TrEMBL record:
Entry protein name: 7-keto-8-aminopelargonate synthetase
Aminotransferase class I/classII large domain ranges (all copies): 49-392
Cofactors (names): pyridoxal 5'-phosphate
Pfam families: Aminotran_1_2
GO molecular function, one term: transferase activity
Top-level taxonomic group: Bacteria
UniProt keywords, alphabetically: Transferase
Length: 805
């Protein structure tokens, strides 16, 4: 398999958001003439508001409104001057109030994003290192990445994985002064907590460890004086923990702040702090409202407000416990996440709830993996008990209908989130269709398989039997593959859909840039299985082409398509791969949307290269079929070098030849980190040598050019698919002679020549080196894959490594 190209992350997000926008979920407009906090009007419909982050409802408090109006009346709409010169008259009062809340030094910032950009580069020294929880808020990650220009190492761990964190601390501690772990106090999607007490224990064990906690979703609704979740877990704020809080969201105003007990660090950050110096100040209205809110936080009233919110949270938790709705994380925060699995199910569910009169948020990629789409519900003091009860009733009623409407099941949703599946009767199969699933091609009729998938390459019946023999009973785990064959038939036993999947170990950087692979291979000298995981993939790493058959004209083709995904979910649950990959598809907007709604994101693949309608007579006739530019290339870079080689075609090899040709193949594999795969087992060549469909095009430099060494310098491993397709599957080369004698170009031409002499009409040249193959007459087609990952960790890790200096 050729390497999947590195993809533009923003393009992927744009496609996902565009799909959600077209479904009527994103980029909506509120139409209210005034807000109460309890309802929103969208598209002329009044909806109960279950999407706010103003959990205590303070943004509608009359005291905050009057304070904001009074500040505008006295000081204007803004104070257009940098705080480095002079702060607005109300700033000092606000700082004193928030400092009283936290009992520590406070730095006010314009907002959280600018605050992180100001604080993190000032707090972290060049001798420090950073470890990010991979679910920490984007604004923290973005600010941390600015330190790469100062060569500060940035590592990442899986969400709340303390063992992984400790391993990173041990690895970084010998070379770095401080190690910063950056996390959220309350995570914004699932409402789950950072394990603060366990993190403090790690700080005590490793004094180099410092914590940077973004607690904007933990503010106000919990903690003494509303100081948030993180401080509620601490007796006091130590010098090695920084807390970032918000003056917006639950606080009801605007802005953000840092709480810091280390006076020296506080002075350093406050003195300059990047955006803290150059960004505009908070508007007088925001400062005035924040002062009014701070006064409430400093009064006993805050505990009354917290208690009123807790009653609503407890009620919602109790009502959910009486349903089988897939609540992803049960806790006491105001944030709840009901999993829907596939985006299309999420769209359907949200639209149904909006029609019933409830506004909720959709959680979707990149905030969560595509397959972990769900509905994020937030509870606030605005919500009355009656509408909380009716929301749960509406969800209980519409959730199964959304599943039915989108051809999915509760079992699939629960499996996507690794939630124990309740005892529910899911009709996952249709009595109209039957599925045959086998783990060896030998259990499938040869004629039937070859009629559907036997004319495209190394996955005809004979080719798959060859692959099964190669990737079985090997010592190294990466050389052992599992095969799964699907055939879905109608009531007359006629196939509608057929495909096959392999389950095997991949290098996770196979989907990343060559730069990432180079860096990881250096680390794999000591740890060969670093960043490797098992993947369930359509087709195999050995084959290329359209790995599926689908009778698109069959009336039940859509049903067969959905059945395949249901069975893939079962296989996914059984095997637990890190990724599910569907690959080698041509660009198709409708297919792209269909796969996205099934929980996949698109990844560009290298272009496919084929020669079709080859009608070989001789070299001169072939040259004449090329463009004038390509003819010049042929005469310059291929014709003069053909006479340098002894060219032999072999179908059987002796042990010495097998060993040498394997070494040539390994040369290419190790040098082609743009296609970073594990090796194939050595017995592969021996099985090829004994197989009637394989042959080897071998180049050996003539003795006068290399008198001391008459061994081959190049080889093409070619598979003959009946009379249908000639497939040069892999290449091997000696890099000492590569450029001088144009070995690769000569192998491409000799492949075309051999295919023509055997009367093959088509050649599948694969997906690498498209530029070289195009010059020899190959047609180029764009290809894409669709990837469904368990989480976004690997993708984010590869991106982080790629952006390192």
């Amino acid at each position: 398999m050729a390497k999947i190209k590195s993809n533009n992350f923003l393009d992927t997000v744009n496609e996902v958001f565009t799909d959600a926008k077209e479904a009527g979920i994103l980029h909506l407009y509120a139409e209210d003439e005034s807000f109460s906090g309890r309802t929103l009007q969208i598209q002329n419909k009044k909806l109960f508001h279950f999407g706010t982050t103003g959990y205590l409802g303070l943004e509608q408090d009359i005291r905050l409104k009057e304070a904001a109006i009074n500040a505008i009346t006295k000081y204007g709409t803004q104070f257009p001057l940098s705080k480095s010169y002079i702060s607005h008259p109300l700033y000092k009062t606000l700082e004193e109030h928030v400092k009283e809340m936290y009992g520590n030094n406070i730095i006010i910032t314009k907002n959280s994003t600018l605050g992180h950009l100001g604080v993190i580069p000032s707090a972290v020294d060049d001798q420090d290192a950073i470890i990010l929880d991979h679910q920490v808020h984007w604004s923290v990650q973005s600010a941390a990445k600015t330190l790469k220009s100062r060569s500060v190492p940035i590592e990442m761990i899986r969400h709340n994985n303390l063992q992984m964190l400790e391993d990173k601390i041990k690895a970084l501690s010998p070379k770095h002064k401080r190690i910063w772990y950056m996390c959220d106090g309350i995570y914004s999607m699932y409402g789950d907590y950072a394990p603060i007490k366990e993190l403090v224990a790690l700080c005590n064990k490793y004094p180099q460890l410092f914590l940077y906690c973004d607690d904007v979703h933990g503010m106000s609704w919990i903690g003494k004086k509303g100081t948030g979740y993180v401080l509620s877990q601490l007796t006091e704020l130590p010098k090695n923990i920084l807390i970032f809080g918000t003056l917006s969201k639950t606080f009801g105003a605007s802005g953000a702040f840092l709480a810091c007990s280390d006076t020296k660090m506080y002075q350093k950050i406050k003195t300059f702090g990047g955006p803290l110096t150059f960004s505009a100040q908070l508007e007088p209205a925001s400062v005035g409202a924040a002062i009014a809110s701070a006064k409430i936080h400093l009064s006993p009233e805050i505990y009354t407000l917290q208690s009123e919110l807790k009653e609503r949270i407890d009620l919602f938790n109790h009502l959910l416990s009486q349903t089988d709705l897939p609540l992803v994380n049960k806790n006491n925060s105001p944030v709840f996440y009901i999993g829907t699995g596939m985006p299309k199910t999420g769209y359907n569910f949200v639209n149904r709830l909006m029609q019933e009169g409830y506004f909720v948020n959709l959680g979707l990629f990149p905030a969560v993996p595509v397959k972990n789409t769900g509905v994020r519900i937030t509870i606030s003091r605005h919500n009355q008990k009656e509408e909380i009860k009716s929301l749960v009733a509406a969800m209980s009623y519409h959730f199964p209908k959304s599943l039915d409407s989108t051809n999915t099941t509760k079992h699939r949703v629960y499996s996507a989130f690794k939630i124990p599946t309740p005892m529910v009767a899911d009709d996952e199969t249709s009595n109209k269709l039957t599925l045959q699933m086998e783990d060896t091609i030998q259990n499938i009729a040869k004629v039937e398989w070859n009629e559907m998938l036997g004319k495209q390459g190394i996955f005809d019946w004979e080719g798959l039997l060859f692959l099964e023999s190669v990737f079985n009973n090997n010592i190294m785990k990466e050389h052992n593959w599992k095969f799964y064959y699907f055939i879905i038939r109608d009531t007359k036993n006629k196939p509608i859909l057929a495909t096959f999947f392999t389950f095997n170990l991949w290098k996770e950087d196979m989907l990343a840039s060559e730069t990432v692979s180079i860096k990881l291979e250096q680390q794999r000298i000591k740890n060969p299985y670093l960043f490797t995981s098992y993947v369930l993939s359509m087709g195999s790493l050995f084959s290329e082409g359209q790995h599926y058959y689908l009778d698109k004209n069959h009336s039940d083709s859509k049903m067969a398509f959905n059945m395949m995904f249901q069975k893939l979910d079962d296989l996914d649950l059984k095997l637990n791969p890190s990724m599910l990959v569907l690959r080698d598809f041509e660009m198709d907007a409708n297919l792209n949307q269909k796969f996205h709604q099934q929980g996949f994101i698109k990844a560009n693949m290298p272009e496919s290269c084929t020669i079709e309608n080859l009608n070989w007579n001789n070299t001169d006739v072939y040259i004449a079929s090329l463009s004038s530019r390509n003819r010049r290339h042929f005469r310059k870079d291929i014709v003069p070098f053909e006479s340098c080689f002894e060219i032999t075609i072999k179908s059987e090899l002796n042990s010495q030849e097998l060993s040498h040709l394997y070494d040539l193949y390994e040369n290419v594999r190790k040098n082609n980190l743009g296609l970073n795969t594990f090796s194939f087992p050595k017995k592969m060549l021996e099985i090829m040598s004994n197989h009637p469909n394989w042959e080897f095009i071998i180049l050996t430099l003539k003795k006068e050019l290399n008198p001391q060494n008459s061994i081959p310098v190049g080889v093409m491993f070619c598979y003959k698919n009946g009379n249908n397709l000639y497939t040069p599957a892999f290449v091997g080369m000696n890099y000492t002679y590569l450029r001088k004698y144009q070995i690769y170009r000569q192998l491409l031409f000799q492949t075309i020549k051999r295919a023509g002499e055997l009367h093959f009409k088509s050649i599948n040249f694969g997906m690498t080196a498209a530029f070289e193959k195009k010059k020899l007459g190959a047609k180029i087609k764009s290809k894409v894959a669709y990837i469904q990952a368990k989480d976004n960790f690997s993708m984010e890790m590869m991106d982080a490594i790629n952006n390192e200096n």
